């Protein structure tokens, strides 16, 4: 299977809030990483090209990569979008719907700590630039620890809200923290999402599960050597990756802590 690096970014900023700083890269580093991708001979393709291949459609071009961004920080509008437009690069932005807000108002509908997030007018502008807008739930809940109507609202409700705002169908979804389960993935498919990204810190491929696409999380402390290896498709396994016993055990533990009212968050250790 040919490895496809699907890079996962969050914030691109010189001055992020403390809570997201470990998952933030500076604009300078972001530009340097885009240069590394190009120098490695990788062409950046839209996520939908990868998803189409995973669904049995046209094959991917050789030596390609995908850019994705989670949550919907305001720096995407002010920093990332201009850089992508300048270079003619496609990307997918997954927004936490409850963290978006009308211009001049404050968002009150997400579990994310305070940060400067996109407003709905900016989301619409980004959409018109050709950057794919995807869903990242309503509140950024851990989907494998919520049930019933709450899970439906997070998955299907966020899709309906995005489509109402943008005026067209949206099909790309991302699991908060990368967490899912067979039941969650079934609900995602039933809601009409045709792809969903996880984390895994593995390479994706045309054979990867389109409802559990592997991504490589770029952090503030990601060594340059590691990023270089990723651009050369070295240093990790290639999806699809079966769920490990550790992942199942970690899910059970988080469900238990959620039941007793002390939920834990963050990605599991690989």
Low-confidence stretches: none
Residue share in helix = 25-40%
- Average of per-residue pLDDT values: 94
Q: Into how many domains do the coordinates divide?
A: 1
Q: Can you tell me the CATH topology?
A: TIM Barrel
Overall outline: globular
Order of helices and strands: EEEHEHEHEHEHEHEEHH
Quick structural overview:
With 270 residues, the chain is α/β, with parallel strands linked by helices. It has one domain: TIM Barrel (Alpha-Beta Barrel). It has 8 helices and 10 strands.
Describe this structure as you would to a colleague.
- There is one protein chain.
- The protein is built from eight helices and ten strands.
- The protein is an alpha/beta fold and about 270 residues long.
- The longest helix is centred in the middle third of the chain and has 19 residues, at about 150-165.
- It has a single domain, classed as TIM Barrel (Alpha-Beta Barrel), CATH 3.20.20.370.
């Amino acid at each position: 299977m040919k490895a496809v690096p699907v890079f996962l970014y969050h914030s691109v900023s010189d001055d992020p809030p403390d809570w997201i700083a470990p998952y933030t890269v500076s604009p300078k580093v972001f530009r340097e990483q885009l240069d590394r991708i190009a120098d490695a001979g990788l062409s950046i393709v839209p996520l939908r090209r990868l998803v189409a291949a995973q669904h049995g459609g046209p094959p991917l071009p050789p030596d390609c990569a995908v850019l994705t961004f989670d949550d919907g920080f305001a720096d995407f509008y002010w920093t990332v979008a201009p850089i992508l437009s300048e270079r003619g690069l496609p990307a997918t932005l997954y927004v936490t719907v409850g963290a978006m807000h009308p211009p001049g108002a404050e968002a009150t509908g997400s579990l994310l700590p305070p940060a400067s997030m996109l407003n709905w007018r900016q989301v619409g502008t980004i959409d018109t630039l050709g950057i794919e807008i995807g869903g990242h739930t309503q509140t950024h809940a851990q989907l494998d620890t919520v049930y019933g109507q709450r899970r439906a609202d997070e998955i299907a409700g966020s899709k309906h809200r995005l489509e109402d705002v943008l005026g067209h169908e949206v099909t790309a979804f991302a699991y908060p923290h990368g967490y899912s389960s067979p039941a969650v993935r079934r609900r995602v498919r039933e809601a009409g999402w045709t792809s969903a990204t996880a984390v895994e810190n593995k390479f994706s491929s045309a054979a990867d599960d389109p409802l559990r696409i592997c991504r490589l999380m770029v952090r503030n402390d990601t060594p340059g050597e590691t990023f270089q290896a990723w651009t050369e498709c070295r240093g990790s396994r290639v999806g699809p990756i079966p769920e490990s016993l550790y992942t199942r055990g970690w899910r059970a533990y988080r469900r238990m802590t959620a039941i007793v009212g002390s939920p834990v968050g963050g990605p599991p250790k690989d």
